[in-house]
Design goal:
The chain is of the alpha+beta class. The chain has four helices and six strands, in the order ααββαββββα.
Amino acid sequence: MTQETLFETLVQMTHRFHWYLDEFRYQDMIEMMREDCAWHRQGKVLKGREQVLAALNERPATQRIRHLISNPFIAERKDNSVRLIAYMLGYKADEGVKKPAPQTIDGPLRLLLLDIVFEFSGGRWWIVEQKAIPEFEFRSPALARG
């Protein structure tokens, strides 16, 4: 078995973070973030784990959401920190009641640019800052026809 490269480690962390988000596993998710983290999300800057958790607990439990991450690369590397850039495509369904998969939706919700800063301390990598910057919003095909 080989040791993961730094790139593989950070990409795995990014995927795991968003998997936890999609699965409403907020405690697992915030444990990947440093205590004094900053998350630029939906037009707000959430500072620290407490604010992140409070914002996530406002999400409707009836929604099914999936985040697809692609095109990651290391944009910058310093002594104990790395900046990773990727694209993220979001899909969402919420009919107000919890439903099993599969659910039918019109298309993706939005495409975002992910800009994540990781820092190595205490023998592990942490998410220090994450920006999810909207690049494209998608029209619903039903709305586009109407």
